[in-house]
Q: What sequence folds into this?
């Protein structure tokens, strides 16, 4: 039995084996291999600052994050994370050395089985994050940035990285899979890309110097728009077509874009990922306790921590742990003890084996579709959710739907919409590049649900675009795809 607060490594090994046995029996999902690493407070601060990756290129923002977290931790204002788990293969789980035995069991169940199951089964992670290649790519990126700093200077490198970081949310291909991460192929193709970029830069210079006689009809003719179709991956377009970036700068933009693609699935599965990890540790801890493998005192300690994690604070944003856990917990009830309402509203789930429903939910959905498919009326009632709106410029709010039978669908749709990517990241696309003359760049913003762009914040970001482009840039706002739209700002 796992008892007491002190632990040795054999206790962690036994806890892991026991959790693995129960996970296979209850869920039966395939997992990546797990690698557990016990680290100290300083190492945890460092890992958090570097977005969890054990190897990363140097940047001042990581140091700033480290110092801020360290100051708050030493002053007692902020606790450290109990664990960090990485979407790698093998999946690396960092455990704090100061955790009690009970907390080590909890974080093993949470990270090594809950998060690991999402990483290894969800379609977004399989298509976009390439867990078996990311660590090698981290080493490649770190070494390349260091060489650039030695050759071109830290200031120039950081200026390019700052601008690319400001645009990393717009470095995602929304509608197609990214190319596979491969550090070996990156090294082999890098010299070829550098030669191509140098040739392109030379052509830009020659074009700007060569006189071009124009007949009168040609003078007023409008050239074909480039690109022919709007492009949603702004960083990729800058990497390939910026008329001012040097070849090594294009490589830096590419590196930032690759890391943005790697973290993209985590952004789209926050509720699903944390909800299933919380549901997994809750289920496994109960199984350990019922089997006599976890003492009463340690079980109570883990349940106290679990309750704190899934607590929904009043007058605040929705806790993704609370929402995700509530949905999975209710799915178990519908599978094992369905009632008449479940049979009516969710007939495809009621009475089915839990492991089948969980496997489907974990592997085939992201947050918005997960909520549309699996959010139940009972969860809506328990969390007291309702939909409301206000007219533009109005100080009065209107409640549109509550937790009754008629309003449930509207509440569910509004909540799912809240977790769509467009809700957090403005939909901005490259509309036109005047490569034949002024080299000006035209971007278009497409409002979603009537939301207007914060022009002050957009101007600050556009200044970073200007550093990477170095020619005039303007942004238009368009309601549909039929026209260019009205002018929002220029830099």
A:
């Amino acid at each position: 039995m796992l008892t007491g607060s002190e632990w040795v490594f054999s206790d962690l090994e036994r806890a892991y084996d026991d959790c693995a046995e129960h996970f296979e029996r209850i869920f039966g999902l395939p997992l990546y291999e797990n690698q557990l690493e016990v680290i100290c407070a300083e190492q945890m601060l460092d890992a958090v600052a570097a977005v969890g990756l054990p190897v990363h290129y140097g940047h001042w923002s990581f140091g700033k994050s480290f110092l801020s977290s360290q100051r708050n931790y030493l002053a007692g204002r902020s606790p450290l994370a109990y664990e960090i788990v990485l979407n790698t293969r093998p999946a690396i789980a960092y455990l704090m050395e100061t955790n009690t035995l009970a907390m080590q069991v909890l974080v093993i169940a949470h990270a090594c089985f809950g998060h690991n199951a999402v990483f290894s089964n969800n379609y977004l992670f399989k298509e976009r994050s390439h867990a078996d290649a990311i660590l090698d790519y981290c080493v490649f990126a770190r070494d390349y940035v260091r060489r650039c700093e030695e050759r071109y200077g830290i200031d120039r490198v950081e200026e390019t990285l700052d601008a690319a970081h400001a645009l990393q949310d717009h470095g995602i291909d929304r509608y197609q899979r990214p190319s596979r991460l491969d550090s070996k192929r990156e090294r082999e193709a890098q010299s070829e890309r550098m030669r191509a970029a140098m040739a392109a830069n030379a052509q830009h210079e020659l074009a700007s110097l060569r006189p071009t006689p124009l007949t009168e009809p040609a003078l007023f003719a409008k050239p074909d728009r480039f690109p022919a179709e709007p492009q949603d991956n702004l960083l990729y377009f800058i990497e390939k077509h910026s008329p001012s970036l040097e070849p090594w700068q294009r490589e830096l933009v590419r590196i930032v874009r690759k890391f943005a693609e790697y973290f993209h699935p985590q952004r789209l599965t926050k509720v699903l990922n944390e909800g299933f990890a919380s549901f997994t540790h809750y289920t496994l801890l109960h199984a350990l306790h019922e089997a006599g493998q976890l003492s009463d005192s340690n079980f109570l300690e883990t349940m106290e921590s679990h309750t704190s994690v899934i607590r929904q604070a009043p007058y605040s944003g929705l806790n993704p742990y609370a929402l995700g856990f509530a949905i999975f917990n209710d799915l178990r009830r519908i599978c094992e003890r369905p009632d008449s309402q479940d049979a009516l509203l969710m007939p495809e789930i009621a009475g089915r084996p839990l492991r089948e429903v969980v496997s489907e939910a974990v592997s085939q959905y992201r947050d918005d579709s997960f909520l549309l498919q699996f959010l139940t009326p009972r969860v809506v009632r328990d969390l007291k959710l309702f939909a409301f709106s206000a007219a533009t410029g109005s100080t009065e709010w209107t409640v549109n739907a509550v937790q009754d039978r008629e309003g449930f669908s509207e509440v569910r749709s509004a909540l799912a919409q809240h977790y769509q990517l467009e809700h957090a990241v403005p939909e901005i696309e490259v509309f036109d590049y005047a490569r034949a003359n002024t080299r000006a760049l035209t971007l278009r913003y497409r409002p979603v649900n009537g939301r207007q762009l914060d022009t002050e914040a957009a101007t600050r970001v556009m200044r970073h675009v200007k550093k990477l482009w170095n020619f005039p840039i303007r942004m238009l706002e368009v309601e549909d795809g039929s026209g260019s739209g009205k002018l929002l700002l220029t830099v």
